[in-house]
Amino acid sequence: MRMSTVFLRTLRDDPADAEVESHKLLVRAGFIRKVASGIYSWLPLGNRVLRRVEQIVRSEMDGAGAQEVILPIVQPLELWERSGRDKAYGPFLFRLQDRKEAAFCLSPTAEEVITTMVAAEYSSYRDLPVNLYQVNWKYRDELRPRFGLLRGREFLMKDAYSFDLDVEGLRVNYAAMYDAYARVFTRCGLTFRAVEGEAGEIGGDINHEFMAVAAVGEDDFVWCQSCEYAANVEVARRKSGVSAAHDSAAIDVPAIEKVHTPGLSGIAGVADFLDVAQSDLLKCIAFDVDGDLGLALVPGDREVNEVALAQALAPRLIRLFTDDDFAARPDLAKGYIGPHYSGATVVVADPSVAAPRAWITGANEIDHHSRGVVLGRDFNVVTWADLVTIVSGDPCPECDGTLSVDRGIEVGQVFQLGTKYSTALGAFYTDENGDQHPMVMGCYGIGISRVVAAVVEEHHDDRGISWPASVAPFDAHLVVLPGKADGADEVKRIADELYEGLKRAGVEVLYDDRDASPGVKFADADLLGMPVQLTIGAKGLARGVVEVKVRVGGDRSDLPISDDLVPILVEKLRVSASENGEVVW
RNA sequence: CGGGAUGUGGCGCAGUUUGGUUAGCGCGCAGCGUUCGGGACGCUGAGGCCCCGGGUUCAAAUCCCGGCAUCCCGACCA
User: Fold this and answer.
1) A88, A248, A301, A378: most buried, per Cβ within 10 A?
2) Beta carbons within 8 Å of A428's beta carbon, 6+ residues apart
3) Which residues in range 115-144 of chain A are in contact with strand B, contact meaning CB within 7 A of any of its atoms?
4) How confident is the model at residue A326 (pLDDT cuts 50, 70, 90)?
5) CATH number at residue A261
6) Is nucleic acid strand B under 7 Å from A483's C-beta?
């Protein structure tokens, strides 16, 4: 495509409202423009990238046996009331009404619609399994859209839904999707990890999140340096080194001693003040457990994992104490809570709290802490459960290795849903014996617009974007530098010829034929980020060559101008683009 | 939902404290000329409901009130 005709304006300055590199660069390079908070227009270059990611996803989905459909974005709210998800989503659901004041919403996912559709069409065991997917815009009225495309209110997502006879069938579909996802993200050039995830709003059982490793990610995930164990930090476990059954009342410790700790409600302050390690303190966090007061106990240097606590106390519902809760229970001193508080009916502790030792804890009295607090003598634990949030250095639960924690962008997720939606929305089939069973479902999402941002986060430098060849808007960027000397027309003629030749050969070329200075053209080429740059100018022509620069790393080389130039370039471009989009010239 | 900040040509900003000519600067855009291998230069020019609505005043981008929008932080570790 001739750049003189492309709808494009690049910017020298970073947009004032952008925080992260992907947002800044995609706006500066003219790929996207903001229309409202968390809502973007995709300009021609951005659209090309989006479509290429989409095609990669599509090819892997088709390859895994899924069939593409298109489901409505505007959906009757009634469907969501039937599944109960209108309440689960709450204000995150974009709602609207038609002229008759019937209630609708903009689809954040499509379990309801697809399950209803499959239920209407299929009712026999002979029909299953089936796996349907769509690529469509999704809507979530985020509390706080941010980071450009990374957390938008409108985003492009591929969502697939599988329907099986039984759990064994689901496992097969799930494994196929899992493998397809790994191929998708590899082809997009992302460094990623599949980790065990939390179920979230959708509900369900086994699931994995695909995390693109990135410092700007919003999710922490844990992975083992020695084995395959990897999990979202919310559900990550560690090897328990201490037996929970230990009775440490026997150790020889003097009775509790109260110490004055004025104004020191935090662990760090108390540890400093008393000149002890934070791990010498026992942290007591107050929770509401279905109306009862619960205390969660972990060593002072660790944090309570609320998801783990919720699991330990399920089916009872937990909620971290709010200021209102504290106000309603004035004798519970926020900042000075101890495990021996008499009103605590549910005391849950991490196994590490069972170590035979004395703790420093809150004294259940403002401005006071207690020394020499001993398990079994001064306080008791009702429930033992792994409660601490995993940090780097913790032992792997699966092997003898050590865990690390990294940040990631969640670019995909696969769920084994089970029968939650099929039961609620009536997706049943009749088996050989005439008995009815709910279909067993899985659902599988990929954030396509988010992948675009994740790719930029991983593939950029201080000059701009450097797209993996697999998702770049064009295969090559051809720069012509005619100058004003006598040979200008000849330079232009040869560049035009190369452009036309490559185009005929099926290469997508962005041809900078603009009447701009060399500096502008080179700067834009680096900013826009095509994987290979070709330059034709008087200088190279004098040596009879076209100059080649690989965007990643900036390696330069020459190719002689000859009748074979086009086929040679085509071959080079084809061979250089490896499976993960990396260019090796 | 709390706290903070911002809103001025397409983009990035100054001007607002202390009201007062014709609202500036850089980039970008148009024309002319010079330049032409890493964001060139000169001259000329176009382009602004100063977020919106009220109010105060002889006079409002500037002060007051009320909205809206955008961004950041927080909404948890006692």
Assistant:
1) A378
2) A119, A123, A422, A436, A437, A438, A439
3) 143-144
4) confident
5) 3.90.960.10
6) yes
Are residues A74 and A95 both part of a single domain? yes
* Complex confidence, ipTM: 0.95
CATH code where residue A175 lies: 3.30.930.10
Do the domain assignments include residue A414? yes
Same domain, A218 and A264: no
Establish whether the CB of A525 is closer than 7 Å to any nucleic acid atom in strand B. yes
Domain that holds residue A516: 467-576
E strands in A301-422: 318-320, 346-349, 358-365, 368-374, 383-384, 403-418
pLDDT digits (tens, 9 = 90+) for A200-211: 555 557 899 999
Residue A466: pLDDT band (50, 70, 90) is very high
Measured from the Cβ of residue A571, the count of other Cβ atoms closer than 10 Å reads 12
**Nearest protein residue, CA measured to C1' of B77:** A303
Residues A252 and A375 in one domain: yes
* A24 in any annotated domain: no
Cα A358 from Cα A378, distance rounded (Å): 10
Number of domains making up chain A: 3
Those nucleotides of strand B lying less than 7 Å from any protein Cβ are 1, 11-13, 26-28, 35-40, 69-78
Q: What is the pLDDT of residues A502-526, one digit of tens each?
A: 999 999 999 999 999 999 999 999 9
